[in-house]
TrEMBL record:
GO molecular function annotation: adenine deaminase activity
InterPro entries registered for this protein in UniProt: Adenine_deam (IPR006679), Adenine_deam_C (IPR026912), Amidohydro-rel (IPR006680), Metal-dep_hydrolase_composite (IPR011059), Metal_Hydrolase (IPR032466)
PANTHER family per record: ADENINE DEAMINASE, N-ACETYLGLUCOSAMINE-6-PHOSPHATE DEACETYLASE
Family: Belongs to the metallo-dependent hydrolases superfamily. Adenine deaminase family.
Cofactor: Mn(2+)
Protein name (Swiss-Prot/TrEMBL): Adenine deaminase
Cited Pfam families: Adenine_deam_C, Amidohydro_1
EC number(s) given by UniProt: 3.5.4.2
One BP annotation, GO: adenine catabolic process
């Protein structure tokens, strides 16, 4: 649809109610748009060249197009303050197709997942995929690749690489979550240089400080880190707000912190709060939504709708200096969402720079990516990315399996004592316990767990045990294993585990459930072993089939693949497993399985 240009504007959104994120009013107002920008927000009856007596035909003499919103609500396009797009299992174009119909028009993405697999090229490939979409993808340059020295990633991003990425990666707006808290507190030179690279450019630095408080928190903030999305309790959140941190309230598929932090959403500090998802699974994107789902939940918990909208738009745009975004006001870009109500937040229509890009839940107008990319200086040939244009390790080359025979589940004397990871259902934190080796096996739900270095580096294999995955037969494996994304596998015995690993290697990366020599379900992830090149509906369908197969093997968990993917992440307490062995996260050190 192309709007005709008339002297009063290209488009007039008439008859709506504008959510004013500056005053928190909801105004009966019309919105005039010209050249992709908002030129005016006029209370009913005050709209230039349109008055109560004017008929649409007269008004049409003055506006290229009149759209009657029939009392619907107009908000700024919604902005996700922090997300790992790879965790949706979708590439940025497929992610955009899934979230724009829900009202999202911009995200702030941390591509540390693909960076941990493919390093500098991975971040550039991510930027290429994200170019020219009808949704802005602003990138925070990954600060922790690898997340810790206690694992083997596919690549390393040192301070020099981070600095170069700030210069060459389009859309880079800051440094992504600094998860190596001990490294900051110890004054790790390379880490502090990465922080300085952002600060010298006047760019924000995101944090990742679960449970940090008192002097350690203040030292972490003093190092130049200005936000955090890991708060679980309001006490923890207030500690961080009180010392000047931006509070990102995370409500995603992996972690839901909104209810626990709702008491922080008060006028005295609301300017320093933003909503984010961190991780969002395809099923949730399709059926629950994205940022609109967070607004729905916030309002259901008692937050005033206009204030909730502000935390998903203006406060985020201001913190990350997204000029011209985050409000329905003159001079702002016409990134707008039109909602039927301010309770369910179902988007009727979504505009990007004044163009209708989605309506009634469907993408309507994929912008001409090649021409936009040409304008933005990105090579359009690069920007219209096809998966096969990636470095060879995309597709069949994503999994370099070392010799795994007899190395996945070492045996222990029955009277030995072994340290076990204990899953907390629905959480990404774990617990730990010491059990007798005689209890190892599906009967007592003490299962062998292994993490295999799959990037062709060390060929190392970390072995341990996990309680809570519940398998009674077979094995489950995945190349999504935060953050180094090695190959993680849990099973009832070594043979099943080995078959699962070899199946994934043949797929070139992904997720699989096997039993008795059969593949029960598989989800190929050919883009770095992290993302599919299919759309959200297809991935959601495959993931449902995989979850059913894992459940049939005996697993009681609601999101088994997400839970499995975080068992390897040594920056979130308490006991995790990497390719180098068991990690006591609080002690930030490797610990033996045998006690
Ligand atoms: Mn991660």
């Amino acid at each position: 649809m192309t709007a005709n240009k008339k002297q009063n504007g290209d488009i007039l959104l008439r008859g709506g109610k504008v959510v004013n994120v500056f005053t928190l009013e909801v105004e009966e107002a019309d919105v005039a748009i010209a050249g992709g920008m908002i030129t005016g927000v006029y209370r009913r009856g005050e709209t230039p060249a349109v008055d109560a007596a004017t008929t649409d035909s007269t008004a049409a003499l003055n506006y290229g197009e009149i759209i009657d919103l029939q009392g619907a609500f107009v908000t700024p396009g919604l902005i996700d303050a922090h997300i790992h797009i790879e965790s949706t299992l979708l590439t940025p174009p497929a992610f955009a197709d899934a979230v724009i119909p829900h009202g999202t028009t911009a995200v702030i993405a941390d591509p540390h997942e693909i960076a941990n697999v493919l390093g500098f090229d991975g971040v550039k490939a991510f930027a290429r995929m994200a170019a020219g979409l009808p949704m802005d993808v602003y990138m925070m340059i990954p600060s922790c690749v690898p997340a810790t020295p206690l694992e083997t990633s596919g690549a390393v991003l040192d301070a020099e690489a981070v600095s170069r990425l700030f210069d060459v990666a389009p859309g880079a707006i800051g440094l992504a979550e600094v998860m190596n808290v001990p490294g900051v507190l110890a004054g790790d030179a390379d880490l502090l240089q990465k922080i300085a690279a952002a600060r010298l450019r006047g760019l924000p630095v995101d944090g990742h400080a679960p449970g940090l408080s008192e002097d350690a928190l203040q030292a972490y903030i003093a190092a130049g880190i200005s936000s955090d999305h890991e708060s679980v309790t309001s006490e923890e959140a207030w500690d961080k707000l009180r010392r000047g941190m931006r509070l990102l309230i995370r409500e995603g598929s992996a972690a839901q912190n909104l209810a626990g932090l709702i008491s922080c959403i008060v006028p005295s500090v609301s300017e320093n709060i933003s909503f984010c998802s961190d991780d969002r699974h395809p099923e949730d994107l399709l059926h629950d939504g994205h940022m609109n789902a967070i607004l729905r939940k916030a309002v259901s918990l008692g937050v005033a709708p206009a204030l909730a909208v502000k935390l998903a738009t203006l406060t985020t745009a201001r913190h990350y200096r997204l000029s011209g975004l985050g409000a329905v006001a003159p001079g702002y870009r016409a990134d707008l969402a039109v909602f039927s109500d301010l309770a369910e937040f179902r988007a009727q229509a979504v505009f990007k720079a004044g163009r209708l890009v989605a309506s009634d839940g469907e993408i309507r107008d994929r912008l001409d990516r090649a021409s936009i990319c040409a304008q933005t200086g990105a090579d359009s040939a690069e920007a219209t990315v096809e998966v096969d244009k990636y470095p060879p390790r995309f597709g069949e080359g994503s999994v370099h399996l070392p010799d795994i025979t007899g190395r996945l589940a070492p045996a222990y004397e029955p009277n030995a004592k072994v340290r076990v990871i204990v899953i907390q259902p629905g959480q990404i934190v774990t617990g730990q316990e010491i059990v007798s080796a005689a209890d190892i096996g599906p009967e007592k739900d003490i299962l062998p767990l292994a993490v295999i270095e799959r990037h062709g580096k060390r060929g190392s294999i970390g072995c341990g045990f996990v309680r809570g995955f519940g398998l009674k037969k077979g094995a489950v494996a995945s190349t999504v294993g935060h953050d180094s994304h090695n190959l993680i596998v849990v099973g009832v015995n070594e043979a099943e585990m080995e078959f699962a690993c070899r199946t994934i290697a043949q797929m070139g990366g992904g997720m699989v459930a096997v039993a008795g020599g059969e593949v029960k379900a598989a989800l190929p992830l050919p883009v770095a072993g992290l993302m599919s090149d299919e759309d959200a509906a297809t991935i959601a369908r495959r993931l449902r089939a995989l979850h059913r197969a894992v459940s049939d093997l005996g697993c009681p968990l609601a999101a088994p693949m997400m839970t499995l993917s975080f068992l390897a992440l040594p920056v979130i307490p308490e006991l995790k497993l990497t390719d180098l062995g068991l990690v006591d996260v609080n002690r930030f050190s490797l610990v033996p399985v045998l006690c």
